[in-house]
Design a protein that fits this description.
Number of strands: 7
Number of helices: 13
Order of helices and strands: EEEHEHEHHHHHHHEEHHHH
Strand content: 5-15%
Largest sheet: 5 strands, mixed
Strand order of the largest sheet: 3-2-1-4-5
Radius of gyration: 23 Å
Helix content: 55-70%
Distance between the termini: 39 Å
Number of domains: 3
Shape: globular
């Protein structure tokens, strides 16, 4: 197949680019800015008369801008789970780890694997994600200031300043929370999906909003297993022969924001969700460690999330119990 395959390694400041064609390979680096995006577009347009496919890893905010810019200009953009790229690197016995070598690897992955086309988030979901991430930043700043007070700061002037800043941050946090609630209420699809998610015992308002913002379109996932892999709650096992058996651990690949958001809901669901409470007790009876049980409940919660958003039907313990038994 003729064409151009482009790997883009994303960092905060720069984009390392590798362009592969049948006859040659070219590399460049551009700033991770709007002007850099334009430079990249001219670089690709000049060299690719046919449609170019561009691959980059799902690295969060740093890659969103260039992905949207190139998508709007007709490129086939694929935003790939880093776990897939890591597995591909192992299959190719790639040992180098630099921005340039990563761009080459992404271009080769693009050429050989032909990953699916990426679709940008709907405008209302993108706004919800921005509001939630802003809320996270405010909460982090509030905690940092609180830590300084608790560390034993003795200067009255500094303590007064810290307290004033914390009071301001408290008001900002409450304001953003109201904006999030209002935003969901103003968009019927978000409101409907939010209500569906909060019908699951263990999923509250904040977790429901986080799931909607980070998952985006549930149609992008073919199965609950794909969703669990995206979040990174699939277990990582280590077994060798008959002598090495280490406990299964969380893979730590995927969406760290959602993993953090699901931890406490999983703890609550073990007590208050009739299906998951029974499921968790079975695991404990089999001698599973506390964290292994929490991880399994997180995964089952995502199975519920997937099924409920796909079906458009609220949580029904009688129906879901039969499905969970085989999940």
């Amino acid at each position: 197949m003729k064409g151009c395959w482009v790997g883009v390694d994303v960092s905060k400041a720069t984009l390392e680019v590798c362009l592969v064609r049948e006859q040659d390979q070219q590399e460049t680096q551009v700033p991770n800015t709007r002007e850099g995006f334009r430079t990249l577009h001219h670089f690709l347009h000049k060299r690719c008369q046919e449609e170019a496919q561009v691959c980059l890893e799902a690295t969060g905010l740093y890659g969103d801008g260039v992905a949207e810019y190139l998508h709007e200009r007709g490129y086939r953009v694929s935003v790939v789970n880093p776990a897939r790229i890591k597995a591909y690197a192992k299959s190719q016995m790639s040992r180098n780890k630099t921005d340039r070598s990563d761009a080459r690897l992404l271009a080769d992955f693009c050429r050989t694997q032909q990953p699916e086309r990426w679709q940008p988030l709907a405008a209302e979901v993108k706004e919800l994600r921005s509001l939630l991430r802003h809320l996270d930043d405010l909460v982090t700043m509030r905690q940092q200031e609180s830590n300084r007070v608790q560390a034993g700061e003795t200067s009255p002037a500094v303590l007064a300043s810290l307290q004033q800043h914390m009071t301001f941050l408290d008001s900002q946090i409450e304001q953003v929370k109201r904006q999030i609630d209002d935003h969901i209420d103003r968009h019927p699809t978000l409101k409907q999906q939010h209500d569906l998610l909060t019908s699951i015992p263990g999923i509250g308002d904040q977790t429901a909003g986080r799931l909607l913002a980070e998952i985006g379109d549930i149609g992008n996932f073919a199965s609950a297993r794909q969703l669990a892999a995206y979040v990174g709650v699939t277990p990582s096992q280590h077994q060798s022969g008959s002598s090495i058996h280490r406990p299964s651990r969380i893979s730590k690949q995927g969406n760290a924001t959602l993993r953090a958001a699901l931890y406490f809901p999983a703890v609550v669901a073990q007590r208050h969700n009739p299906l998951l409470a029974t499921f968790a007790q079975r695991l404990r009876d089999r001698g599973k460690a506390k964290m292994a049980v929490v991880l399994a409940v997180m995964r089952k919660l995502l199975h519920l999330v997937f099924g409920i958003l796909k079906s458009g039907q609220p949580f029904d313990p009688n129906y879901t119990n039969r499905r969970l038994a085989h999940a």
